[in-house]
Specification:
Pfam families: DUF2306. This protein is mostly helical. The protein is built from 7 helices and no strands. It has helices spanning about 5, 10-30, 40-60, 75-95, 100-120, 125-130, 135-164.
Length: about 160
Amino acid sequence: MTADPILGTLPVIQVHIVAAVAALLLTPVQFLRRRRDRWHRRAGRVWVAAMAALAVTGLFIPSFGLAVVGHFGPIHLLSLYVLWGLWLAIRAARAGRIDDHRAHMRGMSLGALGIAGLFTLVPGRTMSAVFFPGHPQLAWVALGLGLAVLGALAWRGSRRRAAA
């Protein structure tokens, strides 16, 4: 593992990575803590700020090879989804609709952080070069295993909701 690819990239990508790491580190804290306590709310505010920074910086990262309009490509829709989802989640929490709040936050955690985060491991991308320098085939293995784990978590969650 080496940080050289991060240090040699655009500043907007560096901020994007810092925001992603902050959100990734706070996600388990949010899901494992007792709900509605002071620390859940404080960490939640930092998580929302990190996700908003992640989404906004994502809009300024060129869509290499998949640009449709200017530098924007399909991946930029994820940034808009995150900003919209954050707004819906905050609105739901303030209105006392905690089940809606939880659903929005889980959706963003699974989709924006989990699935999109795993696709940063595709060989040729910055995070693949960080974690698998010289071994791109291992990146494909990690991507496949990560998607399998996220799929199992999503399936388990849907079964729990169906049983309730």
